[in-house]
Amino acid sequence: MKISGLTLSFGRADRTPLARWFWTIDRPLLFMLLVLIGCGIIAVAAASPAAALRLSGGALEIPPLHFLWRQLIWVAIGLPLMLGVSMLTKNAARRVALGGFVLFLVLLALVPFIGAENNGAQRWIQLPGFQMQPIEFLKPFFIVTTAWLFALRFEDRSLPVIPAGAMVLAVIVGLLVIQPDFGQAALLIAVWLVQAVLAGLPLIILGLAVVGLFAGLVLAYQFEPHVQNRIDGFLHGEGDTYQVDRALDCFRSGGLYGAGPGEGTAKFHLPEAQTDYIFSVIGEEFGAIVCFALALLYLAIVLRVLLQLLDEDDPFTLIAATGLVAQFGGQALINMSVNLALAPSKGMTLPFISHGGSSFLATSLAMGLLLAITRRNRHLKSSPYLQSGLAPLRPRAA
Questions:
Q1: Are 312 and 381 in contact (CB under 8 A)?
Q2: What's the whole-model pTM score?
Q3: Domain residues of the chain, as ranges?
Q4: pLDDT in tens, 313-336
Protein backbone atom coordinates (compact mmCIF):
# COMPACT_ATOMS: atom_id res chain seq x y z
CA MET A 1 0.00 0.00 0.00
CA LYS A 2 1.47 3.38 -1.03
CA ILE A 3 0.72 6.65 0.73
CA SER A 4 2.36 9.92 -0.44
CA GLY A 5 5.19 8.06 -2.11
CA LEU A 6 5.89 5.88 0.90
CA THR A 7 5.30 2.16 0.75
CA LEU A 8 3.54 0.63 3.72
CA SER A 9 3.47 -3.14 3.75
CA PHE A 10 1.66 -5.35 6.22
CA GLY A 11 3.22 -8.78 6.09
CA ARG A 12 1.49 -11.59 7.90
CA ALA A 13 4.49 -11.85 10.18
CA ASP A 14 4.09 -8.20 11.20
CA ARG A 15 2.71 -8.12 14.74
CA THR A 16 2.15 -4.37 15.13
CA PRO A 17 -1.39 -3.29 16.19
CA LEU A 18 -2.06 -1.75 12.76
CA ALA A 19 -0.94 -4.91 10.97
CA ARG A 20 -3.05 -7.09 13.24
CA TRP A 21 -6.04 -4.86 12.50
CA PHE A 22 -5.40 -5.04 8.74
CA TRP A 23 -5.17 -8.84 8.67
CA THR A 24 -8.12 -9.49 10.97
CA ILE A 25 -10.63 -6.87 9.82
CA ASP A 26 -13.38 -7.92 7.42
CA ARG A 27 -12.04 -5.93 4.47
CA PRO A 28 -14.92 -6.66 2.03
CA LEU A 29 -17.40 -5.44 4.66
CA LEU A 30 -15.31 -2.33 5.32
CA PHE A 31 -15.13 -1.62 1.58
CA MET A 32 -18.93 -1.86 1.19
CA LEU A 33 -19.42 0.50 4.13
CA LEU A 34 -17.02 3.02 2.56
CA VAL A 35 -18.93 2.78 -0.74
CA LEU A 36 -22.17 3.43 1.14
CA ILE A 37 -20.67 6.50 2.81
CA GLY A 38 -19.59 7.78 -0.62
CA CYS A 39 -23.12 7.25 -1.94
CA GLY A 40 -24.42 9.23 1.04
CA ILE A 41 -22.24 12.22 0.19
CA ILE A 42 -23.59 12.25 -3.38
CA ALA A 43 -27.17 11.87 -2.14
CA VAL A 44 -26.87 14.74 0.34
CA ALA A 45 -25.35 16.90 -2.40
CA ALA A 46 -28.44 16.20 -4.51
CA ALA A 47 -30.87 16.93 -1.66
CA SER A 48 -29.09 19.94 -0.16
CA PRO A 49 -30.42 22.67 -2.54
CA ALA A 50 -34.03 21.58 -2.03
CA ALA A 51 -33.66 21.38 1.76
CA ALA A 52 -31.87 24.74 1.94
CA LEU A 53 -34.50 26.48 -0.19
CA ARG A 54 -37.36 24.99 1.82
CA LEU A 55 -35.86 25.93 5.20
CA SER A 56 -35.10 29.43 3.89
CA GLY A 57 -38.74 29.93 2.99
CA GLY A 58 -37.76 30.45 -0.64
CA ALA A 59 -35.46 33.37 0.22
CA LEU A 60 -32.15 31.50 -0.26
CA GLU A 61 -30.94 32.58 3.18
CA ILE A 62 -29.17 29.22 3.49
CA PRO A 63 -26.46 28.39 0.90
CA PRO A 64 -27.61 25.67 -1.52
CA LEU A 65 -24.84 23.27 -0.46
CA HIS A 66 -25.17 24.01 3.26
CA PHE A 67 -26.16 20.45 4.15
CA LEU A 68 -23.43 18.94 1.98
CA TRP A 69 -20.72 20.89 3.83
CA ARG A 70 -22.20 19.85 7.16
CA GLN A 71 -22.34 16.23 6.02
CA LEU A 72 -18.67 16.36 5.02
CA ILE A 73 -17.88 17.50 8.56
CA TRP A 74 -19.79 14.53 10.00
CA VAL A 75 -17.96 12.19 7.61
CA ALA A 76 -14.62 13.69 8.65
CA ILE A 77 -15.51 12.92 12.27
CA GLY A 78 -17.44 9.67 11.82
CA LEU A 79 -15.04 7.83 9.51
CA PRO A 80 -12.05 8.03 11.92
CA LEU A 81 -14.48 7.11 14.72
CA MET A 82 -15.57 3.98 12.87
CA LEU A 83 -12.00 2.95 12.05
CA GLY A 84 -10.78 3.72 15.56
CA VAL A 85 -13.53 1.69 17.21
CA SER A 86 -12.91 -1.18 14.77
CA MET A 87 -9.38 -1.49 16.19
CA LEU A 88 -10.68 -2.34 19.66
CA THR A 89 -10.27 -5.83 20.98
CA LYS A 90 -13.43 -7.76 21.72
CA ASN A 91 -13.06 -7.25 25.47
CA ALA A 92 -12.45 -3.52 25.00
CA ALA A 93 -15.52 -3.26 22.75
CA ARG A 94 -17.63 -4.85 25.49
CA ARG A 95 -16.36 -2.41 28.11
CA VAL A 96 -16.89 0.59 25.84
CA ALA A 97 -20.43 -0.61 25.07
CA LEU A 98 -21.29 -1.01 28.74
CA GLY A 99 -20.01 2.46 29.62
CA GLY A 100 -21.77 4.03 26.64
CA PHE A 101 -24.98 2.21 27.50
CA VAL A 102 -25.05 3.66 31.02
CA LEU A 103 -24.20 7.17 29.78
CA PHE A 104 -26.80 7.35 27.01
CA LEU A 105 -29.49 5.64 29.07
CA VAL A 106 -29.12 8.50 31.57
CA LEU A 107 -29.28 11.04 28.74
CA LEU A 108 -32.37 9.34 27.32
CA ALA A 109 -34.03 9.61 30.72
CA LEU A 110 -33.17 13.34 30.81
CA VAL A 111 -34.74 14.08 27.41
CA PRO A 112 -38.26 14.79 28.83
CA PHE A 113 -36.71 17.40 31.14
CA ILE A 114 -34.01 19.08 29.03
CA GLY A 115 -34.83 17.90 25.51
CA ALA A 116 -35.62 20.12 22.55
CA GLU A 117 -38.98 19.74 20.80
CA ASN A 118 -39.26 19.38 17.05
CA ASN A 119 -42.39 18.56 14.99
CA GLY A 120 -44.35 17.68 18.12
CA ALA A 121 -41.75 15.22 19.47
CA GLN A 122 -39.19 15.73 22.24
CA ARG A 123 -36.29 13.48 21.25
CA TRP A 124 -33.22 15.68 21.06
CA ILE A 125 -30.76 17.36 23.40
CA GLN A 126 -29.49 20.68 22.08
CA LEU A 127 -25.70 20.94 21.89
CA PRO A 128 -23.53 23.69 20.36
CA GLY A 129 -23.88 23.33 16.60
CA PHE A 130 -26.27 20.38 16.45
CA GLN A 131 -28.98 18.39 18.20
CA MET A 132 -28.07 14.99 19.64
CA GLN A 133 -30.63 12.18 19.73
CA PRO A 134 -29.59 9.88 22.62
CA ILE A 135 -31.47 6.83 21.34
CA GLU A 136 -29.34 6.79 18.18
CA PHE A 137 -26.19 6.25 20.26
CA LEU A 138 -27.91 4.06 22.83
CA LYS A 139 -29.01 1.46 20.25
CA PRO A 140 -25.58 -0.02 19.38
CA PHE A 141 -24.41 0.14 23.01
CA PHE A 142 -27.60 -1.59 24.15
CA ILE A 143 -27.28 -4.29 21.50
CA VAL A 144 -23.67 -5.15 22.44
CA THR A 145 -24.42 -5.02 26.17
CA THR A 146 -27.44 -7.27 25.66
CA ALA A 147 -25.27 -9.73 23.72
CA TRP A 148 -22.76 -9.76 26.59
CA LEU A 149 -25.57 -10.46 29.03
CA PHE A 150 -27.15 -13.18 26.87
CA ALA A 151 -23.78 -14.87 26.30
CA LEU A 152 -23.60 -15.59 30.04
CA ARG A 153 -26.46 -18.03 29.55
CA PHE A 154 -24.15 -20.33 27.59
CA GLU A 155 -21.90 -20.58 30.65
CA ASP A 156 -24.67 -20.98 33.24
CA ARG A 157 -28.19 -21.68 31.97
CA SER A 158 -29.66 -21.00 35.42
CA LEU A 159 -28.90 -17.28 35.12
CA PRO A 160 -32.10 -15.25 34.43
CA VAL A 161 -30.43 -13.17 31.71
CA ILE A 162 -33.42 -13.05 29.35
CA PRO A 163 -35.84 -11.71 32.01
CA ALA A 164 -33.17 -9.21 33.10
CA GLY A 165 -32.69 -8.09 29.48
CA ALA A 166 -36.46 -7.77 29.05
CA MET A 167 -36.65 -5.46 32.08
CA VAL A 168 -33.95 -3.18 30.67
CA LEU A 169 -35.71 -3.18 27.28
CA ALA A 170 -39.00 -2.23 28.95
CA VAL A 171 -37.34 0.79 30.60
CA ILE A 172 -35.93 2.02 27.28
CA VAL A 173 -39.21 1.45 25.41
CA GLY A 174 -41.08 3.33 28.14
CA LEU A 175 -38.73 6.31 27.76
CA LEU A 176 -39.22 6.24 23.98
CA VAL A 177 -43.01 6.16 24.26
CA ILE A 178 -42.88 9.31 26.41
CA GLN A 179 -41.08 11.26 23.64
CA PRO A 180 -43.00 9.77 21.61
CA ASP A 181 -40.85 7.65 19.27
CA PHE A 182 -42.75 4.47 18.45
CA GLY A 183 -40.63 3.71 15.38
CA GLN A 184 -37.37 3.43 17.32
CA ALA A 185 -39.15 1.48 20.07
CA ALA A 186 -40.49 -1.07 17.56
CA LEU A 187 -37.08 -1.45 15.90
CA LEU A 188 -35.33 -1.96 19.22
CA ILE A 189 -37.88 -4.57 20.33
CA ALA A 190 -37.49 -6.46 17.04
CA VAL A 191 -33.69 -6.51 17.33
CA TRP A 192 -33.88 -7.61 20.98
CA LEU A 193 -36.18 -10.49 20.03
CA VAL A 194 -33.71 -11.62 17.35
CA GLN A 195 -30.93 -11.64 19.93
CA ALA A 196 -33.11 -13.39 22.52
CA VAL A 197 -34.00 -16.17 20.05
CA LEU A 198 -30.28 -16.74 19.42
CA ALA A 199 -29.82 -16.92 23.19
CA GLY A 200 -32.45 -19.64 23.48
CA LEU A 201 -35.75 -17.81 23.95
CA PRO A 202 -38.52 -20.44 23.70
CA LEU A 203 -40.67 -20.10 20.59
CA ILE A 204 -43.84 -19.94 22.65
CA ILE A 205 -42.47 -16.89 24.47
CA LEU A 206 -41.54 -15.38 21.11
CA GLY A 207 -45.12 -15.92 19.93
CA LEU A 208 -46.50 -14.26 23.03
CA ALA A 209 -44.12 -11.34 22.52
CA VAL A 210 -45.35 -10.86 18.95
CA VAL A 211 -48.95 -10.90 20.18
CA GLY A 212 -47.99 -8.36 22.83
CA LEU A 213 -46.43 -6.12 20.17
CA PHE A 214 -49.61 -6.26 18.12
CA ALA A 215 -51.69 -5.45 21.22
CA GLY A 216 -49.40 -2.52 21.97
CA LEU A 217 -49.86 -1.22 18.43
CA VAL A 218 -53.64 -1.42 18.80
CA LEU A 219 -53.50 0.49 22.09
CA ALA A 220 -51.22 3.12 20.57
CA TYR A 221 -53.65 3.51 17.68
CA GLN A 222 -56.57 3.96 20.08
CA PHE A 223 -54.99 6.44 22.48
CA GLU A 224 -52.20 8.20 20.55
CA PRO A 225 -53.45 10.60 17.82
CA HIS A 226 -49.95 10.76 16.29
CA VAL A 227 -49.95 7.00 15.64
CA GLN A 228 -53.57 7.00 14.52
CA ASN A 229 -52.94 9.68 11.92
CA ARG A 230 -49.91 7.85 10.54
CA ILE A 231 -51.72 4.51 10.24
CA ASP A 232 -54.91 6.03 8.79
CA GLY A 233 -52.86 7.91 6.23
CA PHE A 234 -51.06 4.72 5.25
CA LEU A 235 -54.09 2.40 5.12
CA HIS A 236 -56.84 4.70 3.88
CA GLY A 237 -55.12 7.81 2.55
CA GLU A 238 -56.82 9.83 5.28
CA GLY A 239 -55.37 12.83 7.08
CA ASP A 240 -52.06 14.44 6.18
CA THR A 241 -50.39 12.39 3.43
CA TYR A 242 -48.46 15.32 1.96
CA GLN A 243 -45.00 13.86 2.68
CA VAL A 244 -45.55 10.46 1.14
CA ASP A 245 -47.42 11.96 -1.84
CA ARG A 246 -44.45 14.23 -2.60
CA ALA A 247 -42.06 11.30 -2.15
CA LEU A 248 -43.97 9.28 -4.74
CA ASP A 249 -43.92 12.31 -7.07
CA CYS A 250 -40.12 12.15 -6.94
CA PHE A 251 -40.06 8.51 -7.99
CA ARG A 252 -42.54 9.21 -10.81
CA SER A 253 -40.42 12.13 -11.99
CA GLY A 254 -37.23 10.09 -11.99
CA GLY A 255 -38.49 6.95 -13.68
CA LEU A 256 -35.97 4.20 -14.35
CA TYR A 257 -32.92 6.31 -15.16
CA GLY A 258 -33.52 9.55 -13.26
CA ALA A 259 -33.70 13.19 -14.28
CA GLY A 260 -29.94 13.58 -13.85
CA PRO A 261 -27.75 15.05 -11.07
CA GLY A 262 -29.09 18.47 -10.07
CA GLU A 263 -31.98 18.26 -12.55
CA GLY A 264 -34.73 17.14 -10.16
CA THR A 265 -37.66 19.49 -9.56
CA ALA A 266 -40.12 17.44 -7.50
CA LYS A 267 -37.61 17.33 -4.63
CA PHE A 268 -38.16 21.06 -4.01
CA HIS A 269 -41.66 20.23 -2.72
CA LEU A 270 -40.46 17.35 -0.54
CA PRO A 271 -40.26 17.88 3.25
CA GLU A 272 -37.12 16.52 4.97
CA ALA A 273 -35.49 15.86 1.61
CA GLN A 274 -32.05 15.63 3.21
CA THR A 275 -33.02 13.20 5.99
CA ASP A 276 -36.13 10.99 6.15
CA TYR A 277 -36.96 11.22 2.42
CA ILE A 278 -33.52 11.29 0.84
CA PHE A 279 -34.22 7.92 -0.83
CA SER A 280 -36.93 9.69 -2.86
CA VAL A 281 -34.41 12.33 -3.97
CA ILE A 282 -32.11 9.54 -5.15
CA GLY A 283 -35.07 8.09 -7.05
CA GLU A 284 -35.77 11.36 -8.86
CA GLU A 285 -32.21 12.32 -9.78
CA PHE A 286 -30.63 8.90 -10.36
CA GLY A 287 -33.61 6.67 -11.09
CA ALA A 288 -35.20 3.48 -9.84
CA ILE A 289 -32.24 1.39 -11.05
CA VAL A 290 -29.86 3.21 -8.71
CA CYS A 291 -32.36 2.91 -5.86
CA PHE A 292 -32.49 -0.84 -6.47
CA ALA A 293 -28.68 -1.01 -6.54
CA LEU A 294 -28.53 0.88 -3.24
CA ALA A 295 -31.01 -1.54 -1.69
CA LEU A 296 -28.84 -4.43 -2.94
CA LEU A 297 -25.80 -2.83 -1.29
CA TYR A 298 -27.59 -2.81 2.07
CA LEU A 299 -28.62 -6.42 1.49
CA ALA A 300 -25.04 -7.37 0.59
CA ILE A 301 -23.76 -5.86 3.85
CA VAL A 302 -26.31 -7.80 5.89
CA LEU A 303 -25.65 -11.06 4.06
CA ARG A 304 -21.88 -10.62 4.33
CA VAL A 305 -22.10 -10.43 8.11
CA LEU A 306 -24.57 -13.30 8.44
CA LEU A 307 -22.56 -15.59 6.17
CA GLN A 308 -19.39 -14.87 8.14
CA LEU A 309 -21.25 -15.88 11.31
CA LEU A 310 -22.32 -19.30 10.02
CA ASP A 311 -19.24 -20.97 11.51
CA GLU A 312 -18.96 -18.68 14.55
CA ASP A 313 -18.55 -20.55 17.83
CA ASP A 314 -18.42 -17.60 20.24
CA PRO A 315 -21.96 -16.82 21.54
CA PHE A 316 -21.16 -13.17 22.26
CA THR A 317 -19.85 -12.55 18.74
CA LEU A 318 -22.82 -14.30 17.17
CA ILE A 319 -25.46 -12.44 19.20
CA ALA A 320 -23.79 -9.02 19.09
CA ALA A 321 -22.96 -9.03 15.37
CA THR A 322 -26.41 -10.34 14.42
CA GLY A 323 -28.07 -7.66 16.54
CA LEU A 324 -25.96 -4.83 15.09
CA VAL A 325 -26.50 -5.85 11.47
CA ALA A 326 -30.22 -6.47 12.13
CA GLN A 327 -30.55 -2.94 13.47
CA PHE A 328 -28.60 -1.53 10.50
CA GLY A 329 -30.55 -3.46 7.88
CA GLY A 330 -33.88 -3.05 9.65
CA GLN A 331 -33.55 0.71 9.81
CA ALA A 332 -32.65 0.87 6.11
CA LEU A 333 -35.63 -1.33 5.22
CA ILE A 334 -38.01 0.84 7.25
CA ASN A 335 -36.76 4.07 5.68
CA MET A 336 -36.97 2.77 2.11
CA SER A 337 -40.42 1.28 2.77
CA VAL A 338 -41.70 4.62 4.08
CA ASN A 339 -40.35 6.43 1.00
CA LEU A 340 -42.14 3.93 -1.25
CA ALA A 341 -45.41 4.20 0.74
CA LEU A 342 -45.05 0.57 1.83
CA ALA A 343 -45.05 1.46 5.55
CA PRO A 344 -46.40 4.30 7.71
CA SER A 345 -44.10 7.29 8.18
CA LYS A 346 -41.61 6.66 11.00
CA GLY A 347 -39.21 9.62 10.98
CA MET A 348 -36.23 7.26 10.67
CA THR A 349 -33.06 8.06 8.74
CA LEU A 350 -31.35 5.95 6.06
CA PRO A 351 -28.03 4.73 7.57
CA PHE A 352 -24.93 6.49 6.15
CA ILE A 353 -27.09 8.18 3.48
CA SER A 354 -29.30 10.68 5.31
CA HIS A 355 -27.87 13.95 6.54
CA GLY A 356 -27.52 14.32 10.29
CA GLY A 357 -24.86 14.35 12.97
CA SER A 358 -26.49 11.99 15.46
CA SER A 359 -27.46 9.50 12.76
CA PHE A 360 -24.10 9.42 11.00
CA LEU A 361 -21.93 9.34 14.11
CA ALA A 362 -24.11 6.69 15.79
CA THR A 363 -24.05 4.53 12.65
CA SER A 364 -20.26 4.95 12.45
CA LEU A 365 -20.02 3.84 16.06
CA ALA A 366 -22.28 0.83 15.44
CA MET A 367 -20.36 -0.30 12.36
CA GLY A 368 -17.07 0.23 14.17
CA LEU A 369 -18.28 -2.07 16.93
CA LEU A 370 -19.45 -4.59 14.32
CA LEU A 371 -16.05 -4.56 12.60
CA ALA A 372 -14.27 -4.91 15.95
CA ILE A 373 -16.44 -7.77 17.16
CA THR A 374 -16.18 -9.73 13.90
CA ARG A 375 -12.40 -9.37 13.63
CA ARG A 376 -10.79 -12.77 13.39
CA ASN A 377 -7.86 -14.56 11.86
CA ARG A 378 -8.93 -15.86 8.45
CA HIS A 379 -5.64 -17.70 7.86
CA LEU A 380 -5.60 -19.98 10.89
CA LYS A 381 -3.60 -22.78 9.28
CA SER A 382 -0.71 -20.60 8.16
CA SER A 383 -1.13 -17.79 10.64
CA PRO A 384 2.06 -16.19 12.00
CA TYR A 385 0.02 -15.25 15.09
CA LEU A 386 -0.49 -18.92 15.90
CA GLN A 387 3.14 -19.66 15.14
CA SER A 388 4.21 -16.87 17.45
CA GLY A 389 2.07 -18.17 20.26
CA LEU A 390 -0.52 -15.40 20.11
CA ALA A 391 -4.08 -16.41 20.88
CA PRO A 392 -6.59 -16.35 18.01
CA LEU A 393 -9.13 -13.56 18.04
CA ARG A 394 -12.09 -15.97 18.02
CA PRO A 395 -12.45 -17.61 21.44
CA ARG A 396 -14.43 -20.80 21.78
CA ALA A 397 -17.59 -20.99 23.85
CA ALA A 398 -17.33 -22.75 27.18
A1: no
A2: 0.86
A3: 23-377
A4: 899 999 999 999 999 999 999 999
